[in-house]
Each structure stands twice: as C-alpha cells, then as structure tokens.
C-alpha cells in the first residue's frame, strides 16, 4: 500500500494485491469520507430537490441535499445540518433509508440516505463554494423525471426509486 495523493477531501492509495486466481494486480483506491443525503418531503407531498453545478460532470444536476460527515460527527446530526444549509429546513422526523456505495470498484465513500419529513423552516449559512437552487417536485412527477433522464446523480436516483417503490404505493 502506498498513498499517491493526499487531498482535502480524498486520498488516492495504490495497493498491490493478489487475486483469488493467484495473480498480482494493482488496485487504485480513492479513500473518501462518508457522506449523508436526505430525501426531504414536504407535508403536501413535494420533494425538495436542489440544482447545483457539478464541476466534474460539467453541468447542473438535480440532487437531494447531501454532504460529508465531519470527523466524529453523528450521521443524523450531519443530515440535519446539511438540510438546513442547503434548503433551509430542519427535519422533524428523520428515517434512515439505507447506505450505498457510490463507486465500490475504486472508492470507499458511502452515502447514508435518510427520509426527512415534518420539515420546519430553519436556515443555516451555506458553504462558501455552494450555489444551490431549491427545486420542489411533486411526487407524481418523479417517475417522469427519472424516465426522461433528468435524474442522473446516483444517491438521488437511489433515494427517489426507493420512494416510488415503498412510499408511493
């Protein structure tokens, strides 16, 4: 194991491994802190998405609010903080949906996804480098947005398809 790069949000590790077939191989591993994401649903059934420019994708994406868990921070407290920073609401109820790997072939990052309901106005200052627009979407429009390819962010796709499968029956 050797670290090829240390950054502010990730490290790149190069591992020499032996495969189950006995061959030697190199594995490039991005070490990344865990994140949380929240699927915020208003009392009248709207899902509060955010639109933000993503440099790596070179375009605006529709996403659910999310952010990195600070060292030692409780995941639920992080989810509450991110919701307040990104859309200006505090979730009266927070229910864990599950945890997913973004790209397990090369990255250690996990995202724990929550359903946030009973939303109350509560704004925290956003991060300096985030420029976010809140996009309310009626639950009845979500299926069409997915079918038209408007939802391409992995955590958002996972959360919305979970919502359609389990909450919109």
Short description:
With 169 residues, the chain is α+β, with helices and mostly antiparallel strands.
The parts where pLDDT drops under 50 for at least 5 residues are: none
How far apart are the first and last residues' alpha carbons, in Å? 48 Å
The major pleated sheet works out as: 4 strands, mixed
Radius of gyration from the CA trace? Answer: 18 Å
- Helix proportion of residues, in percent? 10-25%
Name the helix and strand elements from N-terminus to C-terminus, one letter apiece.
Answer: EEEEEEEHEEEHH
Our estimate of the beta-strand percent is over 45%
Instruction: Compute the number of helices.
Output: 3
Query: How many E-type strands?
Result: 10
Residue-averaged pLDDT: 94
Structural class: alpha+beta
Shape: globular
* Largest sheet, spatial ordering of strands: 7-4-9-8
